[in-house]
Amino acid sequence: xxxDKEYFTTINYTDYLDRYDRYEKLxxxxxxxxxxxxxxxxxxxxxxYGCAVGLLxxxxxxxxxxxxxxxxxxxxxxSQARKRKLNILDDVNKDDYDVTFCLDVLxxxxxxxxxxxxxxxSSDVLVLRIPVSTDGGETFHLSISKRDPTHINCKTKQQxxxxxxxxxxxxxxxxxxxxxxxxxxxxxxxxLRSNNER
Length: 198
Description:
The protein is of the alpha/beta class and about 200 residues long. The protein contains seven helices and six strands; from the N terminus they run H-H-E-H-E-H-E-H-E-H-H-E-E. It has helices spanning about 5-10, 20-35, 55-60, 75-85, 110-120, 145, 155-165; strands at about 45-50, 70, 95-105, 125-130, 170-175, 185-195. It has a six-stranded mixed β-sheet with strand order 2-1-3-4-6-5, sandwiched between helices. Helix 2 crosses helix 3 (about 55-60). The radius of gyration is 16 Å and the shape is globular.
């Protein structure tokens, strides 16, 4: 399935283009936490990996994080973001980022692509939200996650954690904020790369 205009206006995404307010609240929520634990300040270089139409990049920029960038494989989505003059990248492996958001994206990727991303890419802090399985990786826990035919990678929280540990992420701080929270069906967490990997 193509990640085109139809994708972003159907299935689980019928109101996607009208979600800016949600992303602004999420940006405020997460950056407030990260700044309180000294993982982020106004000069932090931030990437939204799988940025879609750039709502989170726009929100981060608007609340003061000017060094915010987005990357997505959807040409239609990134064209929408570029129309709003957002910092959208063609390639993410050319530079390092301090904090990377991966929200609702890794479940759309095959293991080989995830491994390549984690191997080639450098970021000390990952903010993750991934729909997960509670039956050993057979099916997604949430019915909304099961309905999306582009959700091709189904794992438990522990299986995802094992992948991130393999690439040097040693600390996991599960998120339980107003706008993003850890549940049986969704792993929401901050991953920190170990000092030995930095």
